[in-house]
Amino acid sequence: MTDHPFDRATLDALLFNWLEIGTLADLPAHQGQTPEDWRAVLDLADRISREAFAPAWRASDQVEPQLVDGKVVVEPGTRKAVRAWLDAGLHLAGVPEDEGGMSLPFTVVAGTMAMSMAAHIAASSFPMLSVANTRVIRTFGTPAQIAAFAQPQQEGEALGTMCLSEPAVGSSLGDTTTRALPDGEDDLGPRYRLRGTKMWISSGGQDITPMTVHLVLAKVEQPDGSLIPGSGGLSLFAVPSVLPDGEPNDVAVAGLNHKMGWRGTPNCVMAFGENEGARGWRIGAEGQGLPIMFQMMNEARIGVGIGAAALAWRGYLASRGYASERVQGRPLEDRNHPAPVPLLRHPDVRRMLLAQKAIAEGSLAMCLYAARLVDQEAAGDAEAGRLLGLLTPIVKSWPSEMGLVANHYAIQIHGGYGYTRDFEVEQIYRDNRLNPIHEGTTGIQGIDLLGRKVIFDKTGGIELLMQRIRETEARAEDILPECAAALRTARAAVEQAVDTVRGQNDPAAALANATQFLSATGHLVAGWLLTDLATRPGPLNDGHKVAARYFAGFELPHVQAWLAPVMAQSDLTATLEEDWV
Looking at the annotation, which residues are catalytic? Predict the structure, then answer.
């Protein structure tokens, strides 16, 4: 197993040198804080990740959560690791100080998440989901709801979930059938009785804390017994597993899903209201469930990207270590060499290692850059908000998809050993395979990017992105001219594709090729950030430059190939007969 599952030196270089997060201390929300304070929190997260999370990672894959007498039992080491994180107060790192937290920049919080996710991504998801759950309640709930449902999570006495999907609904949330019957009003606000089944609920049941607070999307039952069709009928409800009077709510784990990876987090089928009805309290206005939930989902999408980047890093470190130690074959330039040489001497192995390094570094840079935009937007920077809105689907999907490519190379470098459970790279791959699926599949992110963020956008987000890429191109001209040239070509291709899709008469036809546009734009953004990182002054090493050079020469040429069906306005997938597939 990797001695250290994450590259702390690279994380610090990205945060403190490239992103210059020290300037965030000048923002009103973080005044009085110093970079030394943030390093101390990062050190704490690093230590808990190594000492509590990492040792439980393999065991959580072998000892899956169990449903015993209606209660979910989590692997003991994982339970201990999550408790260590909560007891250290790290889940409060980004919570405002007047709400009981540390008020740290989200960029610093992202750094803590990256380390815990590299060490044990399934364990890290418990606090990540709960933090997002709490933020929604604090933003849209009443003071009484905050005290009842958010405060216990902040005190480490509860964890939170997001209950969106259903067995027959998937991502089409407008087809939700879970219903909420009005049941009067009390000190916590409008009360309802919920009935329905939710699917794919991470942490839906657990034995780490005595209570779970579920945020449930459901439709209010109308006087005639009907439900308002479509997503406009969705409302959001806080449904605790334990009621304010201490009695259990009518909420049950009906079953556990057995997953390919990420096994340490229980993934549950949840039954609401099998008896008298699960009591829940509406958060926000009726019919505003989906817009409210999007705050939680967008935060979670950046978290997904961070997790994928972290696992790409872990796989890279594992395969680099293996390639340095494993001897096999003779060097190409000396076939009569007296002894086998380390795998690292072979050019194709170096290619695969460079690919992993570029993907891991590009993914982490992308996620941390987005995290910094979150901090800037919170301080009133409208331009940062425009760019963040554009980049969020890319930040979620590009590290997820390309992280798997990096993990594929990690297995390949290990050869047959990589396909066995004796080495960690096969578990890394399985754990990472979830990231392109949850919190909105890659196809959904593509439609979001090309539709809402490009074709129908009025904010100028894509134009702002291209402007920033041009600035990096100009700076790279004298430092890394080959990167500047490759970046310029890829940028021009994406700009031409934007003009093409905006000029199409049928937006639906353009959206049929949205995933290809997403892949191309994600590659452009990764190439831009790698080049930007490699050309900034500071204590960065030659490894950053070689990663940028690799990406420019080996990866950016793919942009035009991905855009070929977009430019051709291909209607193949939109018009073919269903029985041809």
Answer: 439
